[in-house]
Specification:
The structure is a single chain. The chain is built from 9 helices and 11 strands. It has 284 residues and is of the alpha/beta class. A 9-stranded mixed beta sheet has the order 6-5-4-3-2-1-7-8-11. It has a two-stranded antiparallel sheet with strand order 9-10. The chain has a single domain, classed as Alpha-Beta Barrel (TIM Barrel).
Length: 284
């Protein structure tokens, strides 16, 4: 078993060095969400029947094995990760193993939740909140009424607890003027340009049904092993849902699958992918 793990680790390290794959593990913690965004990859919404949750034990085990095999960090996404009642404590346990990027819509940070996140002060955890426009009406048209105000209010509250905040902006349409206004806003909230991620809506999942966003080419996204309750996928834009059914075109291994088997399938799938630092990735 040890020799097999070593072989997997060596193969993974080589793929990273060649620029074929990234060294972050992604976990889809749940597809449950308190919002119903117009471009959602996973059709997540408040009354979703199939929440596709990963339990705490499985997530922590995956992060532990990932560290042993050479992953440098973990990203956790959904759905809305804080819909999971035990997630604040699970996040703290993850942060003891690897640096964590926690993707959240930023609408659930009550005083009670912030108190539960207090132990994360100084930990290597970043909270990535979604904010798509500097104009409340434009932002809320995509993400729901009152979303803009709630997110803007959450940022200083997180900062006050010593927690790092990033902003992710997903653009349905290119608008250089609005984007610059948004940059002025996030800088005023104490978030640097380095902590502001900007990308276009990807035409998968609900966005494909709505006819918005840009098509996703085979080499537009850096492959990063992504685990969901349904299996392992090529990258975090892969496990999308249309009309309640998960797209499996970018699935590399179906559940149940052991981590080492998922990694082996992922590496086999990416053997023919472009290598080198000059590879153009259009979606990040």
């Amino acid at each position: 078993m040890r020799s097999a793990a070593t072989a997997s680790s060596n193969a993974f390290a080589a793929a990273i060095a060649e620029g074929r794959v990234g060294d972050r593990l992604w976990l889809y913690a749940t597809y449950h969400c308190n919002l119903a965004c117009s471009y959602c990859l996973t059709e997540s919404y408040p009354r979703i029947a199939d929440r596709r949750e990963l339990n705490d034990v499985d997530m922590l085990e995956a992060v532990s094995v990932a560290r042993e095999l050479g992953f440098s960090s973990v990203g956790v996404t959904g759905g809305e990760i804080f819909m999971l009642r035990s997630f604040p404590e699970t996040l703290g346990e993850m942060a003891k193993i690897l640096p964590v990027l926690a993707l959240t819509n930023g609408t659930l940070f009550t005083d009670r939740l912030l108190d539960r996140l207090a132990p994360l002060e100084g930990a290597d955890v970043a909270f990535q909140l979604s904010l798509d426009s500097a104009q409340p009406r434009a932002n809320d048209a995509l993400r729901g009424r009152g979303n803009f105000a709630t997110v803007v209010e959450a940022i200083p509250r997180l900062h006050a607890r010593g927690l790092r905040v990033r902003i992710a902006t997903t653009l349905a349409d290119e608008d250089a003027g609005d984007l610059e206004e948004l940059c002025v806003l996030h800088r005023g909230l104490g978030i640097s340009d380095d902590d502001h991620l900007v990308r276009r809506v990807v035409r998968r999942g609900k966005a494909e049904l709505e006819g918005i966003g840009v098509p996703l080419g085979p080499d537009d996204v850096l492959p990063e092993l992504t685990l969901t309750a349904e299996g392992a996928f090529l990258h975090p834009f892969a496990p999308t849902v249309r009309n309640g059914v998960t797209d499996l075109d970018l699935c590399v291994a179906s559940a149940p699958v052991a981590f080492d088997a998922a990694l082996a399938a992922f590496l086999q799938e990416t053997e023919s992918r472009p290598a080198g630092d000059d590879v153009v990735r259009n979606v990040r």
